Amino acid sequence: ASLASLMDGLAAHSDYHALLTVSAAAAIADDDRLHGLAGHPSPRVARAAQARLPLDGDTAALVTRYLRAAPTDRRLLRRRLATERRTGVTDALVGADLADRERAGLLAAASEGMVTTYLPDLADLVPNLPALTARHPRPVLEHLRTQVTGALGPVRDHWWAWAGPALGLLIAHDAGAVLDLLESSGPTNVLTPPVERSLGALIRHDAHRAASLIAHPDRVPGYALPSGLRAHARLFTPADRVRVARSLRDDDRLLALFLNALPPSQRLAVFDGAVSDINVAQRIWDEGVLSALPRAGRYREARRILELPHLRGDVQQSLFYRGFLPAAEARNL
Q1: Would the pTM of this model clear 0.90, i.e. be above it?
Q2: What percent of the chain has pLDDT over 70?
């Protein structure tokens, strides 16, 4: 009785103290007090109490309660329905006469069958695709497949951008299926930023197929080398390492980053293979590429560069590239 009196007095003191009473009542499972506080004149207190009350077990009653609730109360109810996995209630609401945006927000807590049925109409309105994919990856992947297969480039780009926030989850669900789509119906630049962020998982699943995407002729390399590519370069076969290096050879910085991701004993073979089909007699490599090469390759390339006619008259450049030679040889030049 003394505890009840104390809580009554605390709740009457102010809205802040009423919120403290809500927390105390929830801690001791005092549902009667929570019901009373759910009718508090302060909306903040009332909503806090309602959020801590057990949801009514009757699906029809919960649907009616949701449809009669104010927008803020509906948002709180959606969270409760998702947290408590009240799939039956959510399915009924997805099929109810609600705004499309609101129904899209309910999909993550609905059953897989409802997601399969309604996602085609609501996909662009889903507010949190990763949350939906974490629970129902199969219909999300199937929807992506349906939209990109046989579509024009701009349409494919739109749907790959749509799937981007959840791409890691889709790869975790079925990396092979995602690779199939990237190969047959990928975005126009082959690898979007979300795909590049997930390259590590794709390489671990199938390094050869991932290398083919990285080296695709339509792919325009970005400013940075994807971290997943650097971390898993060792998984490529020698031939695939050469293919990847060839796709990066026009950018000395990217080529150097890739070479540095390989064991030193493999770098010269990859470098030579990357440039074997082009004439590099006049190519001047930057410091990063020369530093990444083992000594034999570094000395060879530095000597070639120093023999270029237009470099002989540039004292500063000549001194710079002498720094890549053995000390005794550099002093004698």
Answers
A1: no
A2: 99
